[in-house]
């Protein structure tokens, strides 16, 4: 049975992600690119934790008391988990490779350091935990959990594309937008194929970890 369109919750969720998009691009326009050592600052992790706590609070308030909207359930098929996850990762890395040929999306976001600084390892580890453990959970609950559930009544293809686009725009980037849109849609594809956000959380965390660690090895 096709789920019913919940216009009230969809409007509230739309307001949340619209605000994230507005704040993302406004801060980028006002402050330019982040400092090259953002990953080595405790303030980056602190700001991230505050932001994710607020977003999570709003998401839970919108979903309450229908927690099924968050898709915290076992996957419908572990074979689908593997195949959908592989498709999402390959698509994201292919697009990232193409975009990186003419721009630097990692530098634009400011979370990928160019060199390893052992004297600042502690703040780097804290930032690593925030963006590899905390960020994927909150963003999956926001976009592939609540967001996808609310858009699913409009059809899976439209929900996948819409979630990918909104996810990309919510990060407030220009050079990295194609990568984020592709990755966001890929994660939504995983959600559509498995019925849960758990595989997306793992894939999201792996993608972030590879980006952070990979930058130090090149």
Structure description:
The model has no long low-confidence stretch (mean pLDDT 91). This protein has 8 helices and no strands. The protein is globular, with a radius of gyration of 17 Å. It is mainly alpha-helical and 218 residues long. Helix 2 (42-63) runs parallel beside helix 5. The longest helix has 31 residues, at 121-151. It has one domain (7-217).
In short:
The protein has 218 residues and is mainly α.
**Rg calculated over all Cα atoms:** 17 Å
* Uncertain stretches: none
Number of strands: 0
| Structural class assignment | mainly alpha
How would a crystallographer describe the biggest sheet? none
- The global form is globular
Which percent bin holds the helix content? over 70%
Topology diagram in text:
Layout lengths: L6 H25 L10 H22 L14 H23 L4 H5 L11 H31 L4 H15 L6 H18 L3 H20 L1
Helix pairs in contact: 1-2, 1-5, 1-6, 2-5, 3-7, 3-8, 5-6, 5-7, 5-8, 6-7, 7-8
Supply the key terms.
218 residues; mainly alpha; 8 helices
């Amino acid at each position: 049975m096709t789920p019913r369109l919940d216009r009230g919750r969809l409007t509230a969720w739309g307001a949340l992600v619209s605000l994230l998009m507005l704040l993302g691009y406004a801060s980028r326009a006002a402050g330019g690119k982040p400092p090259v050592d953002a990953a080595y600052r405790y303030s980056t992790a602190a700001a991230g934790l505050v932001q994710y706590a607020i977003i999570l609070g709003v998401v839970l308030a919108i979903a309450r008391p229908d927690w099924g909207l968050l898709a915290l359930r076992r996957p419908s098929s572990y074979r689908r988990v593997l195949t959908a996850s592989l498709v999402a990762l390959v698509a994201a890395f292919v697009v990232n490779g193409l975009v990186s040929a003419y721009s630097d999306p990692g530098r634009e976001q400011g979370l990928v350091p160019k060199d390893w600084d052992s004297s600042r390892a502690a703040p780097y580890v804290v930032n690593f935990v925030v963006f590899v453990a905390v960020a994927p959970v909150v963003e999956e609950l926001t976009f592939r959990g609540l967001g996808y559930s609310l858009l699913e009544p409009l059809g899976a293809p439209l929900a996948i594309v819409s979630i990918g686009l909104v996810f990309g725009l919510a990060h407030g980037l220009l050079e990295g937008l194609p990568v984020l849109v592709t990755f966001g849609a890929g994660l939504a594809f995983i959600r559509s194929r498995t019925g849960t956000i758990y595989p997306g959380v793992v894939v999201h965390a792996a993608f972030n970890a590879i980006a952070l660690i990979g930058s130090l090895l090149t």
